[in-house]
Amino acid sequence: MILTTCAACAAPLAHTAPRCGVRWALHEGRGSTGGKRRQLRHAKTRYCNETCQHDHWRRGHKQICKRIHRGGNAEQYYADKKYKEAVAEAVEKCADDTKGQTCYICTQALHWKTKEGLVRGCSCRGTAGFAHVSCLAEQAKILFAEAEENNLERQPRWNRWHTCTLCEQNHHGVVRCALGWACWKTYLGRPETDRARCFAMTQLGNGLSAAGHHEDALSVNEAELSMMRRVGAPEEVILGTLGNLAGTYCDLGRQECALRITRDIYQGFLKLNGEESGDTILASINYAASLGNLNRFNEAKSSLRKTIPVARRVLGESHQQTLRMRKTYAKALFLDDGATLGDLRKAVMTLAEIERTSRRVLGGAHPLTVDIEDLLRDARVILRARETPPTSA
């Protein structure tokens, strides 16, 4: 992970923590009366102090230190290792879906260099959208490099790190995680203030969350927030980073923490950009979802009644965030203990409608579609139980 803990004792590290670096040793030259110093390079693995460093070396780090250094030092070595593991996981997860297909970028079934198999983690249907993670990553890397070199608009090209070229929808699950590691390992060597490096850390955190690695995502989110504050990032960027942290808190069941942060983020974006900003709309969804997670359904519904019309007007009916917002509202309707029969019917009707839209736009395998299907099934069970008259004894 972003190397934020001591390699020996796992204690949290400051960004200025010592690491094994270059040191010098006396080399006795053959046939000479004097000696000369030779440079010993190490892997820049991070430690609390010299005691932890010496302990880690005694426990075996010395044997692999040179190999790690040749791999680009500790952070790069670790990122490369985790990237390969993430690609293998994604290929295995997608194996049944990709049989008999070829990569739409290189047109091969196996990658010519890495020999990795195919993946598909977007909203493409039929024979479209199959690719190697390495091809997707190389494509994104080249496009962004062209933007940097030729002063082109960067955001559309950066989006290739998380968005499919063909269907224009985000990658999800283990494919998103593998691309997150690919992005991080590409830009981690840049200065801490470099925007691509900052955004790469965001992609890694989002990818880990998408694959369910929430503890790892938390480590990245916290490191990213610390870095953004340290380099003096704009308030808008800080709020976005806090949003990722709040999402991870929610995934880990820390709902009170998530609610405090999402409320502050929503108010911050509302003040900065107004209610029609995409950032404000996303923040309002997360705030309402946090209220719902704490069974504060009346507050969630009240908030969503104000923001759903804005999302429909600004983003459109079939936009993913509009679907998320309506899903959250329907969930608050049918889970509320005080729900009327009309509330339950409205929830079922809403979920059935957005399930069809989500399936059409995002595909049946998309996490949002799956989530809506599960909620629709639960809502129908509750509605049937309410509509069925009790049998007499």
Give a written overview of the molecule:
Residues 6-65 form the MYND-type domain. This is MYND-type domain-containing protein. It comes from Pelagomonas calceolata. GO terms for molecular function: zinc ion binding. InterPro entries: NLR-like, TPR-like_helical_dom_sf, Znf_MYND, Znf_RING/FYVE/PHD. The chain is mostly helical. It has a domain at 1-21 and 42-70. It has helices at 50-70, 73-98, 133-150, 155-158, 173-187, 195-210, 214-230, 235-251, 255-273, 278-293, 297-314, 320-335, 341-362, 367-387; strands spanning 23-28, 35-40. A two-stranded antiparallel ribbon has the order 1-2. The longest helix has 26 residues, at 73-98. The protein is globular, with a radius of gyration of 25 Å. The N and C termini lie far apart (61 Å). Mean pLDDT is 88; it is low at 22-34 and 36-43.
